[in-house]
Structures are given as C-alpha cells and as structure tokens.
Design a protein that fits this description.
By secondary structure, this protein is an alpha/beta fold. The protein has seven helices and twelve strands.
C-alpha cells in the first residue's frame, strides 16, 4: 500500500504526493513546506501556473536542493530542472525509473509512470486523451477525470453564458468516462485504485 495525498487538484492549483514523489507544485510554499522533508523527486508536468507556482519552485530549489526536479524542455526553459524528461526515454532517480509520456494539451505536457515498493503507478492530468500512455497493469491510477461528457454536451452552445467556449476548453481535459475506461482496461486487479484528478466544479 502506498501513502498518497491530494494536496490540491484543479484550476486553482495542483500538487499530489505519492510516496516520496511530489507531482507539480502549483500551490503556495507554505502549504507544502512540511511535506518536502520526505520528498526525493519533484515531477513537473507542464508550464501552466496552476501546476508550477514560480515562487514555490524557487523556494524548493533553495531550501531543499537535495530534491531532484524533473520536467520537459519547455519547463526547463522557463524554470530550470535537474533532469529534462522526454517521451521515449526513461529517467532514473536513485532506484526509481520514471517513464514520461506525451499528453495532448495546449502546451507541452507529460504524464509519468513509475514503480514504488513493487506497485506500478501512472499519473496523468491536463490531457485530452491517454493514447500515448503505456499499457497496464497498474496498481494506482492517478488520472484526470475532469467532466461528465453528457453534462458538457448540454452547454455546447451556451458560449454567451460563460463568456468563452467552455465546451471547446473542456475538451482539452480528459472526461470521467475516458478516465474510468482506461482504469478498467489497465488496472491490475479489482483492488487497484482509481484516483480522480482535476474534477470540474460545474461539469463533473
């Protein structure tokens, strides 16, 4: 069993702790400071501000230089990382090997697969599909589950109500239906955990 905590998940900020790995730091440093003593690796998925709080990342680098920071080349260009990750290339940190895979989003975005204590983990958020995700089986599936497709379809033509094309914007995120289907197809067994991320407050 792996200890994990969803510190924040959504448009206001994202940070998830899985064992000794932190994924994204899109919240204030004060919120996550006490967790950092047990963290060995920080995975950064993409450059959006709700996934990387620049002030928080700066303080992590200063106060916890032993934490190894991974991210794609866009993340590196904007913020700087210790190891640049790219799809098709595994990245080792100590005894852990991280496999990044490309997500379909409006900026360069990656999900990650790794093992912790013989448990296989996949983490994927802010992407419209899981076409590039390595196949299972997985024991823990941290997956975007942003919206219900039926609820979203009802507002397809209500652009004026929201001031922008909420339907088109939501399609950049994985639906609950697609997330659940991936879980059932790729879980190791019925006790494998599906942890839903980035759930919409309006269309979930």
């Amino acid at each position: 069993m792996i200890n994990y905590e969803i510190v924040a998940s959504g448009s206001s900020g994202n940070c998830v702790i899985i064992g000794d790995v932190m994924v994204d730091c899109g919240v204030s440093y004060k919120i996550i400071k006490d967790y950092l003593y047990d963290i060995k690796t920080l995975l950064l998925t993409h450059t959006h501000g709700d996934h990387i709080n620049s002030g928080t990342l700066t303080k992590i680098k200063k106060e916890f230089p032993r934490i190894t920071i991974l991210g794609n080349y866009e993340v590196h260009q904007e913020y700087g990382v210790d190891l640049i990750t790219n799809e098709g290339f595994d990245t080792g940190v100590g005894q852990t090997v991280f496999t990044p895979f490309l997500g379909d989003h409006d900026v360069l975005c990656h999900g990650y697969v790794w093992e912790h204590e013989s448990q296989r983990i996949i983490y994927a958020t802010d992407l419209s599909n899981l076409d590039n995700a390595p196949p299972g089986p997985y024991d823990y599936l941290f997956l975007e589950s942003n919206h219900d497709e039926t609820k979203l379809a009802l507002v397809r033509k209500q652009i004026r109500k929201y001031g922008y094309n909420v339907y088109r914007s939501s399609l950049r995120h994985l639906s609950t239906q697609k997330s659940k289907a991936f879980y059932y197809i790729n879980r190791r067994h019925k006790d494998s955990e599906w942890i839903e991320l980035h759930r919409s407050s309006r269309f979930y």
